[in-house]
Amino acid sequence: MPIPPLIIPEIPLPFSSPPPRADSPQLREHALAWAQRYGLIGRRGAHRLSTTALLDLGMALCGQAPTHKAETLVCWYLWALILDDRIDDGPWAENGVLERFVTAVQAITENDCVDPPHEIGRFDDPMLSVLVDDLWSRTRSWGNERWRHRVVQHLLRHLRAQAMLVKMRGTGTAITLAEYLPLRRDSFGALFFFDLIDAAEMLDPYEHSDTIEWWSTLREHAADIITWTNDIHSIAKDVVCGERFNLVSVLADTHGTDWPASIETALQMVNTAVATFTQTATRPPHHRASAAADPERLRHIARAAGDWHGSVSRYHLHTIDATGQINRQVNLEFIPPTLKSRQFEIDPYPLYKRLRTTLPIVYDEPTDVWLVSRYADAKAALTHSGTSSNNYSWQIGPLLGHTIVAMDGCEHAQHRALLSPSFRSKALTALEASVISVSTDLLAQMQGRRQVDLIADFTSVLPVRVMARALGLPAETPEEVARLKNWCAIGFAYMGNYRQDPTLLTGGLSNRDSFYDFIQPHIDARRTVPTDDLISHLLAARVDGQPLSEGFVRAYCAILMTAGSETSHGALANLVVNLLNEPGVKEAVMADPDLMDNALAETLRRNPPLQLILREARESLELPSGTIPCGATLACLIGSANRDPDQFTDPDTFNILRPHQETNHFAFGAGRHFCLGSLLARMEITIGARLLLQTFPNVRWAPGFQPVEHGFLNRSPHRLEVAL
């Protein structure tokens, strides 16, 4: 039954707004430079924060703080904003990761020395590193020991409450209103920021012991007003994303009421909290309170937060109309699932169906990307002369610089012409021999074993060793293969970091440096004594009569190594699943090995390892189902397009004999940037799968094992336990 439109009420808080700060541009610039310097955000994140109102609340919180402390306060706000996104956007916080993060924060902040003790060490996570190296060291001296204890405890309560909510989401735990309210107050973190604001303004509202209870009560009321206001404004987003921990949702579950009634109850709770705050503020303790304990400061903060939650696009998705005004009536049918939703990791196909049916071209605000889900639209977008690969300037530009993947026009054609001969005709014949040799070796190592994991022992190793041989890099020992696999996995994760996770941003850069250190001696050796490998060919190549720069050569090695292994591994793993899962397919292929090509084509259509391709619109794009505005980033959801019923009969079914006219899929892309190594990938996968079945004709799933696809950008099983 369709959900009726929600009416999101205006919440006019009867408080005055904080006065604007003249140094707001300086605060914004400082925070963005700081976050990029420490790897908390990348180019895309910086652009988003510099062109939207996302940082405005952080600047409004600065009150009367001097500029140098206001800069630190905005950095704290941005740190918390990034952490909130990491927790909400997907799998990062699960499986104990957030709990370990909280433990590390506790170790950093409860240490009372300027220099952290040795056992704290360095952190792989840049959000922890920046606490040690900069943020906490800048902040800890703002107040006395009593203040430090208070701010640390409120920070830890904030983080532990978020960890508790993550755990409850994972277990499907129900929550009562009485349980939710204090947990939500802590998880939002308002009390922690009140502490920071006090110190930034060099005020101590707790200097008189008689006012402590009164002021703490006022702060809790203000925190509730801010938190509940946020919940009301974000209810549409939370409903679409499946977020149960929202005041409106909890009220609906607790009282058994519908959305309009629950929203009205939540609004009444906000109004009651405002009235209670106002009443409490007019009855301070009998003695004269300090100027620091001024309720007007809290009113300013609550009003600034309420205005921000009521206007920023992050909470309203598609509720802003053509005039730029907030549309209070929200039709949930027309709010898309966001790519940041955990459900895309688990099973994207029901979401694809909804997009194709209802929202074939739609803007996904959390990722700042237009989603293109139908086959006709994806084909038009990927082949349109008005689309560009400039999106790679932020996807991998900071990692590898300007490379072929980000090129367009003549420049792209020139560089593609350099590489194409290495994956065609005679070169492909040599690569075929390598594929057979590596496959045979890997399968021989399985002989005599009753059970193996084909991911660990075959599908992930084969393409790494083949591409390493093509480049002229060593990849024979388990240690060499493991090192290359790790580099490739991290590099691919960096390229697909559409959630812009800080660990992937910084980890990708250190991973690149490690890979470059590894390949540099091989480049130097080929420069002196060329051989018949890709590194030597790259060194001999010329564009406009000039050799490729050292940076180009290293970047191409990284691209070829990564692109030539990760997606091929995923496609081979998905093919194995279909061979063993689909009735009669394995037997048909063994009886007629030529059918392996059909099996792979159908796997790439129905189960493509790469689920989306990004592009940028350099002009307004008129696609069959709608318009993409000029300058927008668009995500061609090839996992959706490949299952479009308007193009494919019974698209969710694996059909090894699918008619030829229905075999055109987008697993290798389309248009000018069609996958350069597609012939190698097809050959590698089909030969590997054929030899697997020839060597182990009785291969089957291990007892009790069933494969499960994981991931979104790169979707395939993590394990393939088989009996031989």
Automatic annotation (TrEMBL):
One annotated GO molecular function: terpene synthase activity
Alphabetized InterPro entries for the sequence: Cyt_P450 (IPR001128), Cyt_P450_B (IPR002397), Cyt_P450_CS (IPR017972), Cyt_P450_sf (IPR036396), Isoprenoid_synthase_dom_sf (IPR008949), Terpene_cyclase-like_2 (IPR034686)
Pfam families per the UniProt record, alphabetical: p450 (PF00067), Terpene_syn_C_2 (PF19086)
Highest taxon in the source lineage: Bacteria
Family: Belongs to the cytochrome P450 family.
Name of the protein in question: Cytochrome
Source organism of the structure: Pseudomonas canadensis
